[in-house]
Design a protein that fits this description.
Length: 371
């Protein structure tokens, strides 16, 4: 009996030992799975964070969001922002919507009440004589970027208005030779008429470029006026525009030309005011292109061209026959004079239609009796 009891005890011990071994194996497997999950978690966290070691804190790592190279902007060796990328402000009209609607109402325009500001401006300018000044406006962050690139100091705590004034003064005091390159291509007629090109030596925003170029534009036109009493002037700005193709993800580049109106400049012209009008027209055309261009954004300024052409005033001339399609309509009076008084004959024919023979309106003798 004693032997039998000992065998039973031994079998119980074996069962208990096997159960204990199984429990230990299960614990070990659970521990290994936890370690694997922790490693996977750490790997995922490393992908979501920079992971660069911090110099000031030992055994601690940067938890900032990584960039393309796996590091954040503080630890990345890639430049944060290319220095040749221009800062572009928003070209805006400061006239309020209330004022625009009042103008549209006074002018008798219809369908203006529900139009957004851009369409309302276009409606008023297209159908009336009103023209609105467009200004380039920068945010405080953009002004700080401009100040940094121009080497201005002590600007970090300034407000937006003071910062704008500081940047403007820096631009006004800048040396032109360091900002722009002037290429004179005038050959015809003793170098008065032709094209003068202004190219930026470093990329500027629109405001800076035109402010720097202002003195060059004015001096170029003034020099031409000393040789000729009058001339026609036009500004043409060439700007690279960029748009992303949504289908392929590739960038599309174009270089449109933004022109001012062809302006007559004489010795009595307010030159500063006329240049301001021409620059305003260039900015206006550029703003329209960016609004209607479906995604076009400002790339960089290529160059500004100053076109100076000969001014030909209207003079009295002799009789010129009407084109055949107009003459067949028999609705236009064209006095057949042999002298240089076409304008005088035209005015007399308009003022005295009842005093002449309707069958002989072309004869100049019909109008001598009413003089």
């Amino acid at each position: 009996m004693a032997f039998t009891n000992n065998c039973r005890d031994t079998s119980k011990d074996r069962v208990a030992k096997s159960e204990m071994d199984e429990i230990e194996i299960n614990k070990e497997m659970a521990s290994n799975s936890v370690d694997m999950n922790m490693d996977q978690f750490k790997e995922n966290e490393e992908l979501k964070t920079c992971g660069a070691s911090l110099k000031r804190k030992e055994e601690q790592f940067c938890k900032s969001k990584p960039g393309k190279d796996g590091l954040c902007w503080r630890h990345s060796k890639e430049p944060r922002q290319q220095e040749n990328t221009p800062v572009v402000g928003n070209i805006v009209v400061k006239t309020t919507m209330k004022e625009l609607r009042e103008i549209a109402k006074k002018e008798g325009l219809k369908g203006y009440s529900r139009k957004p500001k851009g369409e309302l401006l276009k409606l008023i300018e297209t159908n009336t004589a009103h023209k609105f000044t467009r200004e380039e406006v920068f945010t405080k962050k953009e002004l700080k970027t401009i100040a940094k690139r121009r080497g201005i100091t002590n600007y970090s705590r300034l407000g937006r208005a003071d910062l704008t004034e500081l940047v403007k003064k820096n631009i006004e005091n800048a040396h032109v030779k360091e900002e722009i390159k002037i290429v004179d291509r005038r050959d015809a007629l003793k170098g008065v008429f032709g094209t003068i090109t202004i190219e930026p030596l470093r990329q500027h925003d629109m405001l800076t470029f035109f402010d720097v170029s202002q003195s060059t534009i004015a001096s170029t036109i003034s020099d031409a006026l000393t040789k000729k009493k009058a001339l026609k002037v036009q500004l043409v700005l060439q700007v690279e525009m960029v748009k992303t193709n949504p289908a392929t993800g590739e960038n599309i580049y174009v270089i449109p030309h933004f022109r001012s109106t062809l302006t007559t400049i004489t010795e009595s012209t307010d030159l500063e005011l006329e240049i301001a009008f021409m620059v305003e027209k260039v900015k206006e055309n550029m703003a329209k292109y960016m609004c209607e261009g479906s995604g076009w954004t400002f790339g960089h300024i290529e160059k500004l061209e100053i076109h100076q052409n000969k001014f030909k005033p209207l003079n009295d001339s002799s009789y010129i026959a009407l084109p055949k399609p107009l003459a067949q309509k028999k609705a236009i009076i064209n006095v057949q004079n042999t002298d240089q008084e076409c304008l005088r004959c035209a005015i007399l024919s308009a003022l005295h239609p009842e005093d002449v023979d309707k069958n002989c309106t072309k004869r100049v003798g019909q109008y001598k009796k009413v003089v």
